[in-house]
């Protein structure tokens, strides 16, 4: 089966545009991403150069840098939609739902996408977790997601995220579970039911729920 870019990049690069030039730019960006991810999967991240990615697609190195600041950014774009999906997932939950249920559904959105496209996504997740520069970028994204989830959770509960500890603590717990699930999933094999992201995140939140749903946090 030919390599195809994972869901999150394709969601960003295939949305409708109004001009032919914009559609052409999207096509080039998608081709660069697919070529880069295939090369990374086969050769390892450090062994692949920007020149090699550009040559594979049939464009110049200069063209590559019109789309990406570095080869790291090709992989990091895979992460770009996850935080937005989590926050949107949390915002869509019923107002009276327990925090553990709401947060479980929020972090399950990107994990479900990972599980649905395991053969393509799993190599990228492994690449991110095993490459120090990419892992650092991933952790930067998680810090941003924590703030976004904390803000949304505070809004749902009528709390001040700057004055109350609960929103950031709860968001941090949810993302710790998310991170642990990705790491456990990456250590297994695609298709193993016991290590599927959806199964693992349910197990993780079963452990977290008593803390997340303890005495209701008081408003400052």
TrEMBL record:
MF annotations from Gene Ontology: DNA-binding transcription factor activity; transcription cis-regulatory region binding
Protein name: TetR family transcriptional regulator
PANTHER family for the chain: HTH-TYPE TRANSCRIPTIONAL REGULATOR RUTR, MYCOFACTOCIN BIOSYNTHESIS TRANSCRIPTIONAL REGULATOR MFTR-RELATED
Originating organism: Streptomyces viridochromogenes
DNA-binding region, residues: 49-68
Pfam families: TetR_C_14, TetR_N
Statement: the UniProt record of this protein carries the keyword DNA-binding: yes
Record keywords: DNA-binding, Transcription, Transcription regulation
Domain HTH tetR-type as annotated: residue spans: 26-86
